[in-house]
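[agent] plan:
  1. take the single chain provided in the ticket
  2. run structure prediction with default settings
  3. attach C-alpha cells to the ticket
  4. add a short note for the reviewer (M.T.)
[agent] executing step 1
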Amino acid sequence: MKKTILKQYARLLAVCGVAVKKGDPVIIQAGLDQPEFVAMCVDECYKAGASRVMVEWDYQPLAKLHVRHRTVKSLGTVEEFERAKLQYRVDKNPAMLYLLSDDPDGLKGINQEKLAKAQKAKYGIIKPYRDAMDNKYKWCIAAVPGEAWAKKVFPGVRTTTAVEKLWEAILFTSRVIAKDGTPLDPVVEWHNHNESFANRCAYLNSLGIKSLEYKSANGTNFTVGLMPEGIFCGGSEDTLGGETFNPNIPSEEIFTSPKSGVAEGLVVASLPLSYKGELIENFSVRFEGGKVVEVKAEKGEELLKQMVGMDEGAARLGECAFVPYNSPIRESGITFFETLFDENAACHLALGRGFSNCVKDYDKYTLDELTALGVNESMIHVDFMIGTADLEVTAVTADDKRVVIFKDGVWAF
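[agent] step 2 finished; step 3 output follows
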C-alpha cells in the first residue's frame, strides 16, 4: 500500500480517532504485524500536539505460552507495577489507540477455562481503575493487517497479496480510499459521516421507544426492553470534559444500551464470532426473563457457554445496535472474522457491560444509580451479529405506537 495513503490513515486515527490535542499523552497498543504503520501513528500523534506517545506491543504466541506455563494464581495476580500503570491512566488520562491485527484463530488450543479463571480473579482489582476512567478519556479501536488474519480473510492467494487486499478493505471501509482506490480526505469524510449519525440518532431519540421487536426468517424472534432514560448514540462521542473523538474506525452502527433483565426470545447469529482468539460459528442464543438460558453452536459451543458464564451480567444484554444490511462493509462481500468490522456489516447485540453514556445526562448519576436504571454491569462486552437481508425491527413507543425501524434489513425511515 502506498505510504502516502497510509499516512492519511494514521492522520485520521490521530486527529479524528483519538483526537489528540496539544499536551496529550497517548498510549498505542498494537501487535507486531505493522511496526512501520505504528511509527506513522506515533509521528501523527506528535504532529497533532502529543506530549508523549508510548507503544505497548502484544504477541499472541506469548499469550499462549503464559497460559500454558503459569498458574491460575500467577495469571490472576495484578502486580504493583501493573497497578501503577493503571493509576497513571487514571491520573494522566492518556488517549488510547488500539490497533487490531490478531489471527482470529491465533489462540486456538489455549486453556480457555484457566484463562477465564485468571481474568475473573483480576477483574475485581482492575474494575475500580476502569470505573475511575469511564467516559473521561479518548480512545479509538482501528485495524491493520496481520499476515495470518489476511490469509484467513483471503485464502488461496499469496501472503503478500492477501495483506495488500486486506489493507484495501480496511482503508475503504474506514473511508480513506474510494471503492476504486482513489484517495479521499478521510477527515472530511468522517466529519460528514458523523453528521449523518447525529441526524438519525435525533429521530430515534424523538420516538420515546420502550421496547424493540426483532424478526427474521432464520428463526430470530426476540423482544428487548429499553430504559426510559436511554438514548441512541453513533459515530463520534464526547468525554465528560467535552472532547470529541471517534471510538471505532470504521463504524456504521447506531446503538443503545437496553434495560438489563428485560429480554425474551431467540436470536440467531448471522456471522461467526471471534472470541478469545477462537471462532464460534452457526450459533443461537435464547433469552428468558432478561438473561441467556440456552446457547447452541455448531462450532465453539463450550466457549460460548463459558462466555455467558463469566459473571452474572455476562448472560444479559449490554447493547442493541442498528447497522443497515447495505452498509459498505456488508457490500464489500468480505467476512473479516474481526468484530470491529463484522459488527458493522449487520445489526448486532452485545452480551455483558452496557454503556453509561447511553443514558441522557449520564454524568448526573452515580455508577450505582446507572446500574439501578438498567445499565448492565459485567467484566465482558461481546458483540455478535444478527442482521439479515430480511430482518425487521419494530419499535414500540411509550404510548404504545408501533414504528417500523428496520425493514428488509435496512433503515425504514
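[agent] step 4 note for reviewer: The chain is about 35% helix and 25% strand.
[agent] ticket updated
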